[in-house]
Design brief:
The chain has 175 residues and is α+β, with helices and mostly antiparallel strands. The protein contains three helices and eleven strands. It has a single domain, classed as FomD-like (FomD barrel-like fold), CATH 2.40.380. It has a seven-stranded mixed beta barrel with strand order 1-2-3-6-7-8-10. The two termini are 28 Å apart. Keywords: Hydrolase, Magnesium, Metal-binding.
């Protein structure tokens, strides 16, 4: 698998299990790109929804993608601290077109005090039936939720103190 180069821009494409394009983020800046991890940044980035709607992100964000784990993490820098939005998803793949992953609906919102909410369980159950998620996939996703929550509780990876701030400082050197 190829990997994006630091300092380049990439598109991020989110798909659904049935292969349908779900959402696209344009022009995310690559801060680190390896076959294992991609860390990106964006601010006021155009996002296109599958139904044609578009919107602009409101605040600077650091994105964290891993090629082995079934989640990705967005750390959003807000006035009251760092808010995290974690997508339960397939591991990423990267080709020369974009960084790509499958979004499995379940999300975890983590607040600056490290409390969290699991979101969209009803949407997950609906899509699990509609798209016939196999039982093994359901187990993988739920195991990765537990793994991700372990990271949150242990302040590991992007949840560690200063992780988002340090990568945001790196992002500012490119602006």
């Amino acid at each position: 698998m190829s990997c994006p180069k630091a300092g380049s821009t990439m598109e991020i494409q989110s798909y659904k299990h049935n292969g349908q394009l779900h959402r696209v983020w344009e022009n995310s800046l690559v801060l680190k790109g390896t076959e294992l991890i991609v860390i990106g940044a964006n601010d006021k980035t155009m996002v296109k929804e599958s139904d044609g709607r578009t919107w602009i992100t409101r605040e600077p964000a650091i994105t964290y993608f891993h090629s082995k784990y079934w989640f990705n993490i967005i750390g959003m820098l807000r006035n009251d601290g760092i808010h995290y939005y974690c997508n339960i998803s397939s591991p990423f793949v990267y080709d020369d077109e974009a960084l790509k992953y499958i979004d499995y609906d379940l999300d975890i919102k983590v607040y600056p005090d490290m409390t969290y909410d699991l979101l969209d369980e009803d949407e997950y159950e609906e899509h699990k039936q509609q798209m016939n998620y196999p039982a093994v996939l359901d187990r993988i996703l739920h195991n990765n939720i537990e793994y991700l929550l372990h990271w949150v509780r242990q302040r590991k990876g992007p949840f560690s103190p200063d992780f988002i701030d340090q990568w945001y400082e790196r992002y500012l050197t490119y602006r």
